[in-house]
């Protein structure tokens, strides 16, 4: 079946993928196109920006966390024949965790039979770019390079030379040329872009990207490239998953505010499919936990909101009391930090929820950054012992002090760093917290286990 689609990739990070992707999404949407946004890789922040630009959720297609059949199934679930699907890549087109390129954007492009628009940083170079494009084409002839976007061109003459060289030597059309921009539309922090929730003028930034696309990109040709994508083969692929409308039997709280914002849309929808009603909560501003059957604390930047989190004494006390009563809590990365005793920011300690006797501080360099493989070694509220699962880590926080007391670690880290000495999954009471992030489509047991823990708690506490 025909599913209009394209991938926006580059030779390396920092080449203009983000402004190109967001510009195309917002500009085509303004022209009346229905856009289905996707992000290649595990990134939460870029996905958040794409969702804002498209006006609907963005989903992650990760070639390490998901099997090829799951990637196609996920894609088919969240795209439509009448929409244009744009997939923003990560890093360079052929970059991967291994020398075979198994997790590269190129492999995703071949799997989805999607044409690629390649973004090129044109700073201080001209004809060499044609050689690089030609090299990409012959490196793997099965990857379809359908268009080129030039970024940071110095002027009309500079653009003209590059355009003629690329089109003349490779036959790939140049579909846009973005000049050097004076304004930094999308400011960055150590983990990439600043999240939409922390960007004071996020909507204005999207408008600026749209203006760039409308002025410098051939949007009609880009839409045509997507619409000319070949029919997507569905051989040996199960039918797309459907969102269930069954009666919601348990209430799961979701911490969502400026401190906690890293959630895959797929994860939240998986909880809903399993029968959970989602209740969004702010540990920064809410005075207490409502009546819940489980609580999910995702990742984020609690360190940037540490003062407000610390000052919300009533919420922290409410969480402590709920944990003592047996409330199931699942926390990832930033959520783990919040469940600790203190977080030290700029030499100032801030009290957190004090569920675990841990002190955290922040390094100036990443403590862990990459994919992980973990094996469940000990009993916990969500995963069965013996299960192996894949995830990813990216954090600057580190453990300064840990009073182990009655706390145990449920996960053995086979690849990655984890929380402590190649272990992760800190457990106490009915709480499990880890640095590892998981994706519900790659680890279906996550949603099944958390909802079951909620049901067990609901039955225990009674009406």
Automatic annotation (TrEMBL):
- Could you state one GO biological process linked to this protein? cobalamin biosynthetic process
Q: Tell me its EC number(s), please.
A: 6.3.5.11
Q: Which GO terms describe its molecular function?
A: ATP binding; cobyrinic acid a,c-diamide synthase activity
The active-site annotation reads: 333 (nucleophile)
Pathway membership, UniProt = Cofactor biosynthesis; adenosylcobalamin biosynthesis; cob(II)yrinate a,c-diamide from sirohydrochlorin (anaerobic route): step 10/10
CDD domains, from UniProt?
Answer: GATase1_CobB (cd03130)
Q: Which Pfam families match?
A: CbiA, GATase_3
Q: Which residues form the CobQ/CobB/MinD/ParA nucleotide binding domain?
A: 7-189
Pinpoint the CobB/CobQ-like glutamine amidotransferase domain residues.
Answer: 251-441
Q: Which reaction does it catalyse?
A: cob(II)yrinate + 2 L-glutamine + 2 ATP + 2 H2O = cob(II)yrinate a,c diamide + 2 L-glutamate + 2 ADP + 2 phosphate + 2 H(+)
Which residues are annotated as site, described as Increases nucleophilicity of active site Cys? 437
Q: Which UniProt keywords apply?
A: ATP-binding, Cobalamin biosynthesis, Glutamine amidotransferase, Ligase, Magnesium, Nucleotide-binding
EC primary class: ligase
Q: Which InterPro entries match?
A: CbiA/CobB_synth, Class_I_gatase-like, CobQ/CobB/MinD/ParA_Nub-bd_dom, GATase_3, P-loop_NTPase
PROSITE patterns reported for this sequence: GATASE_COBBQ
Q: Does the keyword Chaperone apply?
A: no
Needed co-factor(s): Mg(2+)
State the domain notes: Comprises of two domains. The C-terminal domain contains the binding site for glutamine and catalyzes the hydrolysis of this substrate to glutamate and ammonia. The N-terminal domain is anticipated to bind ATP and cobyrinate and catalyzes the ultimate synthesis of the diamide product. The ammonia produced via the glutaminase domain is probably translocated to the adjacent domain via a molecular tunnel, where it reacts with an activated intermediate.
Supply the PANTHER family for this chain: COBYRINATE A,C-DIAMIDE SYNTHASE
Q: Which family does it belong to?
A: Belongs to the CobB/CbiA family.
HAMAP family hit by this protein? CobB_CbiA
Q: What does this protein do?
A: Catalyzes the ATP-dependent amidation of the two carboxylate groups at positions a and c of cobyrinate, using either L-glutamine or ammonia as the nitrogen source.
| More details | The a and c carboxylates of cobyrinate are activated for nucleophilic attack via formation of a phosphorylated intermediate by ATP. CbiA catalyzes first the amidation of the c-carboxylate, and then that of the a-carboxylate.
Q: What is this protein called?
A: Cobyrinate a,c-diamide synthase
Give the originating organism: Candidatus Magnetoglobus multicellularis str. Araruama
């Amino acid at each position: 079946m025909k599913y209009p689609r394209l991938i926006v990739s580059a030779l390396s990070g920092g080449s203009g993928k983000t402004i190109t992707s967001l510009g195309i999404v917002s500009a085509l949407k303004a022209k009346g196109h229905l856009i289905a946004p996707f992000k290649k890789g595990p990134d939460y922040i870029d996905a958040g920006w794409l969702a804002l630009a498209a006006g609907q959720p963005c989903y992650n297609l990760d070639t390490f966390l998901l099997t090829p059949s799951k990637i196609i199934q996920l894609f088919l679930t969240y795209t439509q024949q009448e929409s244009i699907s744009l997939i923003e890549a990560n890093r360079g087109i052929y970059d991967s965790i291994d020398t075979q390129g198994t997790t590269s954007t190129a492999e995703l492009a071949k799997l989805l039979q999607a044409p690629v628009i390649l973004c090129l940083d044109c700073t201080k170079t001209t004809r060499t770019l044609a050689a690089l494009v030609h090299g990409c084409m012959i490196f793997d002839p099965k990857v379809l390079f359908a268009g080129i976007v030039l970024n940071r061109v110095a002027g009309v003459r500079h653009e003209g030379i590059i355009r003629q060289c690329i089109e003349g030597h490779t036959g790939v059309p140049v579909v846009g040329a973005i000049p050097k921009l004076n304004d930094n539309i999308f400011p960055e922090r150590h983990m990439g872009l600043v999240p939409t929730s922390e960007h004071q003028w996020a909507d204005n930034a999207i408008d600026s990207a749209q203006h760039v696309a409308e002025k410098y990109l051939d949007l009609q040709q880009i839409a045509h490239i997507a619409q000319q994508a070949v029919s997507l083969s569905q051989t040996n692929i199960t039918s797309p998953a459907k969102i269930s409308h069954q009666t919601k039997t348990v209430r799961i709280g979701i911490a969502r505010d400026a401190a906690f914002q890293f959630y895959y849309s797929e994860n939240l929808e998986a909880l809903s499919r399993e029968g959970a009603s989602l209740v969004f909560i702010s540990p920064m501003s809410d005075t207490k936990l409502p009546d819940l059957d489980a609580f999910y604390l995702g990742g984020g930047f609690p360190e940037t909101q540490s003062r407000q989190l610390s000052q919300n004494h009533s919420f922290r006390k409410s969480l402590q009391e709920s944990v003592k009563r047996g409330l199931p809590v699942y926390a990832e990365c930033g959520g783990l930090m919040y469940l600790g005793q203190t977080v030290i920011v700029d030499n100032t300690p801030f009290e957190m929820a004090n569920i675990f006797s841990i002190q955290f501080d922040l390094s100036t360099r990443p403590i862990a950054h990459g994919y992980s493989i973990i094996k469940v070694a000990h009993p916990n509220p969500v995963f069965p012992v013996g299960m192996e699962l894949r995830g990813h880590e990216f954090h600057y926080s580190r453990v300064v002090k840990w009073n182990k007391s009655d706390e145990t670690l449920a996960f053995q880290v086979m690849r990655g760093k984890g929380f402590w000495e190649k272990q992760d999954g800190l457990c106490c009471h009915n709480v499990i917290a880890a640095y590892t992030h998981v994706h519900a489509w790659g680890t279906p047991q996550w949603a099944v286990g958390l909802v079951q823990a909620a049901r067990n708690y609901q039955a225990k506490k009674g009406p």
